[in-house]
Amino acid sequence: MTEIFDVVNDVNRYQEFLPGCEASVVLNATSTTYDAGLEVSAYGIHEKIVTRNTPTCNRSLKLELIEGPFAQLEGNWSFTDYGEGCRVSLELSCEFASRLLNVFSNTIMKRGIEKTVEAFVAEVRRRHDSS
Q1: pLDDT of residue 108
Q2: Which residue of 4, 76, 81, 94 is most buried, as measured by CB atoms within 10 A?
Q3: What is the pTM of this model?
Q4: What angle do CA 39, 44, 50 make, to 5 degrees?
Q5: What is the DSSP string of the chain?
Q6: Are 85 and 69 in contact (CB under 8 A)?
Q7: pLDDT tens digits, one per residue of 78-97
Q8: Terminus-to-terminus CA distance in the chain, angstroms?
Q9: What are 22-69's pLDDT values in tens digits?
């Protein structure tokens, strides 16, 4: 479980494995939160997103929008240990600032979440196999 949490929490390496992520960096950090900046491109759209992230060691990672193309964005990664494995889930709620993007948001977000989770799982496997 620690491995997947560590990968999800390793913002500075997202651009190495996350589809559409062109840059990622921790902008500042406190003892309980950090702000993450991402530059993403998908479907011909290039955007910068800044979120405030609140990790709870090996259990969850809460995301809140600071800046970006959304009117609203909240998310939560959760990690549940099942002895032989780990259940990982990502709940994401967002509303695009653009009315046009809101029309397509369900399809965009569903596929985006699937691709994101798949990329994190593949990265965990890659790191595990190389150690």
Answers
A1: 66
A2: 4
A3: 0.84
A4: 20
A5: -HHHHHHHH-GGGGGGTSTTEEEEEEEEE-SS-EEEEEEEEETTEEEEEEEEEEEETTTEEEEEEEESSEEEEEEEEEEEE-SS-EEEEEEEEEEESSHHHHHHHHHHHHHHHHHHHHHHHHHHHHHHHH-
A6: no
A7: 999 888 888 888 888 888 77
A8: 16
A9: 999 999 999 999 999 999 987 788 989 999 999 998 999 999 999 988
* pLDDT at site 107: 66
What Rg value do the Cα atoms of the chain yield, rounded? 15
What is the distance between the alpha carbons of residues 105 and 99, in angstroms, rounded to a whole number? 10
Encoded tokens for 83: 């002895």
Closest Cα to residue 34, out of 48, 52, 49, 50?
Answer: 52
Pick from 8, 52, 61, 46: nearest CA to 30: 52
The answer to whether residues 59 and 40 touch, using CB atoms and an 8 Å cutoff, is no
Question: Residue 19 corresponds to which amino acid?
Answer: P
